[in-house]
Amino acid sequence: MQFLKDLNPKQQEAVKTVEGPIMVVAGPGSGKTRVLTYRIAYLIHIGVPASNILALTFTNRAANEMKERIVQLVGDKSKQLWMGTFHSVLAKILRIEGEKIGYERNYTIYDSADSLSLIKSIMSAKGISTQQFNPQAIRARISSAKNQLVMPDDYARRTLDLFEEKTAAVYVDYQKQLKHNNAMDFDDLLLKPIELFDRNKKTLEKYHDRFRFILIDEYQDTNRAQYILIRLLAEKHKNICVVGDDAQSIYAFRGADIRNILDFEHDYPDARLIRLEQNYRSTKTILDAADRVIKHNVDQIAKDLWTQNQAGEKITLLACADDRDEGGTIVQKIYEETHRRKIDLNGIAIMYRTNAQSRAIEDALRRNSIPYVIIGGIEFYQRKEVKDVLAYFRVLVNLRDDESFLRIVNYPSRGIGEAAIVRLRAFANSKQRSLLDAASGVGDLPGVTTKARNGLREVSTLFQKYVQIKSEISISELCRSLVDELGILPMFKNEGTPDAMTRWENVQELLSAITEFSERRSDATLEDFLQDVSLVSDIDEWDGSHNAVTLMTLHSAKGLEFPIVFISGLEEGLLPFSNSALDRKEVEEERRLYYVGITRAMEKLYLSYARARYRFGEVTYQTPSRFLEELSDASLETINNVQRYPARTHHVNEENAARHRKPPKQVDHDHSDVMPDYENDTASCLNLRIGSFVEHETFGKGKILTIAGVGDSMKAVVDFPSVGRKSLLLQYAHLKVL
DNA sequence: ATTAGGCGATTTTTT
DNA sequence: ATCGCCTAAT
After folding, report:
1. DSSP helix/strand/coil, A304
2. pLDDT for A541-558, tens place per residue?
3. Active-site residue, selected from the candidate residues A218, A527, A538, A603
4. Is A519 a catalytic residue?
């Protein structure tokens, strides 16, 4: 038991309290991951078979890291451990048990984009206008209903308005269609196991006996469905250890319910509560800043974070003229830092609220030849050509997957148009067969052109052929041969445009990914690969060992640490993010996100904001974030590039005076001339600001949400209680400030 | 049936 | 600014 001496007393207690429910509230950098890994290692060490342990994490990456570490501690006997994300572990259980609730083991997993297209097709089938009712919004409603375990019929009974009625109607068909396709969406991966265990007590008991010790990471980010699932699994032995930090709960938008962690002691009355409050990660300055910020929140478990680390350097605030300047200034600081400390680029991370912000920063990095890796954003597996090819594989694996079938039935073009599809659908429905199946009986199909008929026959024989050879050749050969037969690669080559070349490369890359996957796991099936694609995210694949700066959203940054962290875009409307007025709870979630960002930093933290920023292709004027005021002046130093551009509340006269002042120091090159003159702007003359209340001749009173554009084309979006949101040209609107 | 060109929405965050 | 979707033209 040598390894326990790596732990402080609190951590040891968390590791050695093996029986009964236990909650570990772990502040940032307090060794949470360490506790989890050592606890598992300890269990195995004292003789618990690894196969009796279930550990659920938030990302696959966290799971893999821990697994490796555990192997180091106790060796190969840990291999039988069940560890992964909720979604991946449950997907695995559903492959085994799904037949009990009417799914075949080769079911397909739909991502949000797949769900959306299914919802759209249901809407058009039911004659619900996608103009009037936003399919995205309907998808989101259905998803959140599922997260709360509200079933279609329950939902239908509780509708409050027309939109919800339509949603209810779509929801019913959506679930039917998923089942018909032998497919599940992300939410089903949580829901269906609950259904399984409810209906099938024997199966539940089997898993009770298997998972005698359960550990949950990032408990603050679990939703209702996950909560119920954990309760079901743990109800017999009650050996459940949850680890989390309410202050780092940042997934409410996805249904995460912070009550799960706040009420743990209520749910398990004899629960042991352990707080880890010593921070090993950050300097005193950084930790104090984080602590000060989070104290502004009302909803939280009180904690006293402390550290023995040194005070370290002050936090540096970079006040920038615009997003381009922000990128340039960050680059300059990266230069300084890499020269000053012996630090590699992979010790540096740049974080932002929205993926769209990465662009200006990427430009700056590229201009200065600084290598970077970017996490998230437009994902490889979301690209059209990749999804198209994957759809072929999906159909091959699950012949009932109508959604994927529809995607590829006329790709590449086979002369199958909408009319033919309508006929095929009707035919399939009447026979209760899948579309692919129906396509094979295309001879009986009336009202279809010869061309379409031949096309359908072609698709059908194509799949018959590959179903047959599927088990005979390796999956990489199978996939390559299928792609070759489609002829899309030469098609891209012939097109010759840079865009087509990228597509060509992407398809090649997909094929290499499959090869690599099957080399890594000798028994891997195509089913396994497809599941991996659905459930693995960018962050899971990220490898911090390259010499490159890492760019990512604040959400992706959770669980990571870097010696140097930049948080960019500290502006109202961006961090905290809003498209309209925020209520307290929303601001608190944004603040937690900010807190997560701050606490990623070990040695040095930079914050930055831009006075102006391109959003939606227009210049928008930004106000520094309220979160900046929550830091103490003593711990902060400011580098100001924007002396010329005083705060927007200032009067015109002062601005004129300010214009003649020279900026103290030009930090970076070539980005100083893009700013428009403030003093000519209608908005500044009128003293209009985001959040101002104004009056309009016809619309009445309203509140300004955004201001964009320059000079004559300057526009404001105003929220009028009477008529809703309006985008107005200030030149004509004659707004009166109230 | 395919394609070009115009229009409108889109940007919150993700398993 | 960019992407997807729709319409009109071929």
Report:
1. coil
2. 777 777 889 999 999 899
3. A218
4. no
